[in-house]
Model the fold of this input.
Amino acid sequence: MPRFDLVVVGTGQGGSAAATRCREAGWRVAIVDELPYGGTCALRGCDPKRVLVGAAELVDWQRRMSGHGITGDAGIDWPALSRFEHSFTDPVPSQSEAAFEAAGIATYHGPARFVSDDRLRIADETLEAEHIVIASGARPAELGIPGEQHVRTSTDFLELEQLPRRIAFIGAGYISFEFAHVVQRAGASAVVLGRGAPLARFDQDLVARLVEHTKRIGIDVRIKTNVVGVTRTDGRYSVHVETVTGAGTTDADLVVHGAGRVPNTRGLDLEVGNVAVDERGGVRVNEYLQSVSNPRVYAVGDAVLLPGKLPLTPVAAHEGIVVATNLRRGNTVKPDYRGTPSVVFTVPPLASVGLTEAAARSQGLRVRVATEETGGWYANRRVREPAGMFKTIVDEATDRVVGAHVFGPQAEEVINVFALAVRHEIAASALRRMIYAYPTGASNIPYML
Done:
């Protein structure tokens, strides 16, 4: 039976960080994945999605500037764009595995499951481990509706070689809004069917502005719409919904799951390994990301649900480094989620860091809030983008920025400056006194404070 100091389940950023750092320390390390090596971000998430969004941004910019110095017409050739997207994703599995092997990490393929508290079974082989890191990522949450088998995942969407004419997205989160904006710029129609508040983690004033803009460009956004079933007839789909005004049906050529994800731990037989989980399947851990029931087990990334944590790739990588440190040196480091920025890559994007206004007030903070539409600002006008808004939240007692929310061109970059301020408790007055490169998105920050 092969014996290792560490076995890691999952080859995304979190698992890779833990595996490589422990191997660098001289540990005997193995890594296993039931999916192609590389993880969600590189293969089925951030990276391929951003390629599609980039094309949508270009098309939208050209259309906005038409008649204002730009001629011609831009469009998306979906098969060609799909091939370009695959030029990023196709090499990842082999490159990732080769990198592990070059580092001296043993690689395994297939589903892993616990057969005891220190052993994992992969196919017909059992691995014994002094320590185990669960970095198995997330999977789409079960919808629990008739016809769920007809609903495709975000991974399926990214694999489309041809774009259907009508696409319905179930849920009003990141996936639905981002893909709907791509679909619309590619010439198809999109409908977003959301049961609750859209993009619930974001400041709802800016979300309302994004929803308004999304509707204005021709995307059908329906809130308080509960999907209760999907039927298929002659290769086309009917999405059955219930709303406050009654039942209804939406027809589509493709139905995509955008209604949230849950930890992908169901097939690991965690109970056999004495690994306790919460009600959503996330590994229950202490403040050092160590299992509360099996001390040889740690967990990172989307396999763990914790207060204040966002399900983002950089967070998983941060946790992987934390766990590697704790494995090698004992439990001495805790994850630090302060100032984690997040972005919805619509066109234009919506970005957020720190507290929303509602959260700040619910905590009893006395805050100074600045908010304004920015459609008339230079950064918007030079690209003829009418959609834009910001909100900043500053603690009156300390003058520290505790939250920032930006919707508009370059929001995905501007938010990083605010993230630095939130994480390192930089005063708003210091940000105002900064000398910024001009004209840039960041040069607007003093006016946002």
